Amino acid sequence: MPRMIFLNLPVTDLKRATAFYEAIGAVRNPQFSDDTASCMVFSETIFAMLTTHDKFRQFTPKPIADAKISNQALFCLSADSRDEVDDIVGKAEMAGGVADPSPKDEYSFMYGRSFEDPDGHMWGVNWMDMAAFAAQSDMANA
Question: Which residues contact 44 (CB under 8 A, 6 or more apart)?
Answer without folding.
Answer: 2, 4
